[in-house]
Amino acid sequence: MFARGARWLSETGHKLNFPMSGLTQEALYAGIDMELSWSEHQLPQLERTKHVHKLHPYLGKFIPQLVEVFLERHFAPGTCVYDPFMGSGTTLVEANAFGAHSVGCDISAFNCLLSRVKTTQYSLGVLELSLRSTLEEARQAGPAPTDDASPWMRRWYSDRALGELLQYRTIASAQLEGPVHDVAKIILSRAARSARLTTHYDLDFPSKPAPRKPYFCYKHKRICKPVDEAAKFLARYTADTMRRIRDFASVRTNKLVEVIHADSRTLELPIQAQGVITSPPYPGLIDYHEQHRYAYELLGLEDRSAVELGRAKRGTSKTALREYIDGMTDVFTNAARQLAAEAPVVIVVNDSRDLYPEILERAKLRLERRLTRHVNRRTGRRAGQFFEDVLVCRVAGSP
Ligand SMILES: C[S@@+](CC[C@H](N)C(=O)[O-])C[C@H]1O[C@@H](n2cnc3c(N)ncnc32)[C@H](O)[C@@H]1O
Questions:
Q1: Residue 23: how many CA atoms within 13 Å on its side-chain side?
Q2: What is the CATH number of domain 2-108+257-288+316-395?
């Protein structure tokens, strides 16, 4: 075990949350939970993005294996896990595969759609036939007129790509309904993400559309052309989505999964949960609505970013941090109120500002262990090595 730690530490350039100087090696390793710190070799990207976990890109998700460990440590099959910051549904998917019921809540309508699509049980044959027929009809019809598209859409897409997306949207709405239509919406959103006028080196956080002409690509070190179509992405993601849903179906259980679009500060849980596994947003880092703006534009989803906690746009001023602490306190107080005393509340967060001692105290959560996890790798512009904490808490009993 220590050999693993030693290798990582020498590779990482010591980005630890606690002071290095004066610590013995043993003291250093003691602060890191080895079971949670996988190397790239032990846990390659393919495993971290297995089956439905990669139905659609999402910045700010935690890895499924982390959830697996905490399900094993603190929950039993048949119990119910609550995630007040459900995001792309990682906790729900893993809880289901583990054999637990789950409830997830998120303020972002797109994240709810994505989580629902990941966790729904489908009739696979019907789903595949329906998606293929929509794709084929859209291909035959060709691009739709783009005159009615929003100014945002016209700015971010070539005319042809936009026309193909709109055509697919129209045919999907006419042909499909219910959960099958929802899957088509995720395919459409993923294709829309790939078809934006962005440079290849700026897919995660494009701030403005790329020029509509060839450009020097820092990622590929050559001249690249901006994307001019969406049809190839629609076809590619239809096949990939089907494959991923099939893969998950082979490990899926029939346990209950509840996805709720709401503010978790005030949510009343529809069923009794036995504990929480979650990763809250962190102040000033990510705008969870804005990262999927194309989906909000295309699908007409309700935008509730005004009540999104910690959104990057609010920044990290004293006032923003105070608002964040109050908001998190409300979420965890509301969750704790609906759990039994001593229920586990597992919070994955990189609390570099040390905000959580106050949040936990005010929410009456008792910190049982603070585990430090080595995060081996992220992709895109966030690539790098760092450490994050897992706060393992218990709902405090009455005094
Ligand atoms: C760090 S992400 C969760 C990622 C998740 N663990 C996953 O693996 O996909 C935090 C989530 O909190 C959601 N959120 C922010 N404010 C919220 C609120 N008031 N109520 C519910 N969810 C909220 C954001 O929309 C975002 O999806």
A1: 13
A2: 3.40.50.150
